[in-house]
Design a protein that fits this description.
Number of helices: 6
Number of strands: 8
Structural class: alpha/beta
Radius of gyration: 16 Å
Strand order of the largest sheet: 5-4-3-6-7-8
Number of domains: 1
Strand content: 25-35%
Order of helices and strands: HEEHHEHEEEHEEH
Shape: globular
CATH architecture: 3-Layer(aba) Sandwich
Length: 190
């Protein structure tokens, strides 16, 4: 079974791929939502996803895993455990990612960004900017899901278990809204 097939099975078994009308954390609308929290609520699934990602990135030998809060914290932590390196997370304050809780990023640390789901890459890009501002080297991104079909992070090495191409829409262009459907926001940013 391929990595993608294994990831699809985990999402199917946990009913984490949801159909409906959703507002994503990016503000875009979509008819499908990937609720990674339903997958990662089971430590065995978190460990399995991290192990599969670690196998994809182990040759790069990162010193540090950095995850944007909150959705990617669990997979980042598990990935750090699988790779035997430190794992921290960044948090938003006034809509900007910052280091908090005494976390540090050291100059020249080989850093891997961990994500649960990449849609537009906005949170990932902000995390990369923060890591580079501290003098560390970003060696790539590892995500459970890339729902952009590979378009969100041009020029960045991106390892993913499942690459999908799920259409997203600006609210004013959303066909679901135009049909009278009301969107639901299931994500972490309210």
């Amino acid at each position: 079974m391929s990595l993608q097939e294994r990831a699809e099975k985990i999402f199917s078994d946990t009913e984490a791929l949801i159909n409906g009308h959703f507002v994503l954390s990016s503000g875009l609308h979509s008819s499908q939502y990937l609720q990674c929290a339903k997958v990662l609520q089971w430590p065995r699934n978190a460990e399995l996803c991290a192990t599969m990602l670690a196998n994809l990135v182990s040759q790069e030998k990162p010193d540090l895993i950095v995850s944007p809060a909150t959705g990617a914290i669990i997979i980042g932590h598990e990935l750090g455990r699988s790779l035997g390196c430190r794992a921290i997370f960044v948090e938003r304050k006034n809509d900007v990612f910052r280091l908090r809780r005494g976390f540090e990023i050291h100059k020249n640390e080989k850093t891997l960004i961990a994500e649960d789901v990449v849609t537009t890459g906005g949170s990932t890009q902000q995390t990369i900017t923060l890591v580079k501002a501290h003098g560390a080297t970003v060696i790539g991104v590892a995500s459970i899901i890339d729902r952009s079909g590979g378009r969100a992070l041009p020029g960045i090495t991106h390892h993913t278990l499942w690459s999908m191409d799920i259409p997203t829409f600006q609210p004013e262009e959303c066909p679901l809204c135009k049909s009278g459907s009301k969107p639901y926001k299931p994500g972490s940013r309210i």
